Amino acid sequence: MISRASFASLLALSLAACSATQTPGGISSASAASGQVEADEALVPYYDGLRERVTLPVAPAGAALPGEGTTLTRIAFGSCNHQSRSQHMWAEIMKKNPQMFMLIGDNIYGDSLWEGDADLDSLRDAYAEQAQHPEFAAFRRTVPMMTTWDDHDFGFNDGGADFAFRRWSEDIYETFWNSPQAVRDRPGVYESRMFGPEGQRVQVLILDTRYFRSSFERYPFTEERPPLGPYVPARDASKTMLGNAQWQWLSQELAKPADLRLVVSSIQVITNAHDYESWEQLPAERERLMQALDGANGGGMLLLTGDRHAGGIYRTMLGGDELWELTSSSLNLAFNNTAANTAREPDPTRVTDLISEENFGTIDIDWAGKAFTMRLFGNQGETRAERTVRWSAR
């Protein structure tokens, strides 16, 4: 007899496939999106019943975020934390005394034991395991947190809008992290916060690069997998990274005046040096992002990214100004061997080594000098990379 979970899986996948129209170039992005919405709706009764039968895990109680009038001078962030590995990095981050910490994706790894069930048991189990760590609980009590997800806490490796169970995954995420009501009230987990008085306003823009994202295009089959990833930039300009509603929201947020903007993307933005997941794989969407950032209502700009299991500092030009990106990954699941990985991935936009041991990042803001200092720290709190940048008023 087929289980309810398996039936729900087959139903969602069948609806998504039947609703997507085939075109000469494959399944159109608009048709695929329509099929996914229908699949989402078909699963609503199943998940309504499931909520009555299961208790979703919740994170340990957390410290409140700084008030809107608080001047921020030190923020920390990181990504890629496996729930079954050492949690030693939380203590190292606390030693830096950040005013808040952003955990920007792969906050747990809930997909590795997933069996394809609609209940997402492995995802819920991974969150429950993370909640039990005393080091994590101590960190939560001390340091306020903001979060977004990446693929391994969204549902499956490199997943996007084609994930049949994304609504349930979002419920699990928002329950665990006690997401703000504005996040709960709309699809996806993107959000924005403004901190500080006029002249010292920091806008934090946290993007969702999973819930709405079109599928990436892959290299044709070869006997040998490409050494730096399986994807090629999409030829289909209708593919989306953020989806229409999130793009509209981002435009509205960038129209607000700010003195410094921190734009969080779970995947890298600037680099063209690899063929894993990045904004490079949707070139029309990356150009749209750059135009949107260039048109922001004043202030400096810094991109914060994760995902790569290695970190570094990147630079490109945005209009007539420098645009910087700080990538921090991983808290406890790193590649290791910085020298080998730096040589393996030459990149003219990266101004540091590719830091391949465990790391986390900080941003220190010097309001008097209109400058921010980016740092990557290792697993004993040692400095691994550092740059100080003055920003223009734009």
From TrEMBL:
Signal peptide location: 1-19
Domain PhoD-like phosphatase metallophosphatase residues, every copy: 199-374
Statement: the UniProt record of this protein carries the keyword Signal: yes
Alphabetic keyword roster: Signal
Pfam families reported in the protein's UniProt record: PhoD
SUPFAM superfamilies with a match to the protein in the record: Metallo-dependent phosphatases
PANTHER family associated with the record: CALCINEURIN-LIKE METALLO-PHOSPHOESTERASE SUPERFAMILY PROTEIN
Protein name: Alkaline phosphatase family protein
Species for this entry: Qipengyuania atrilutea
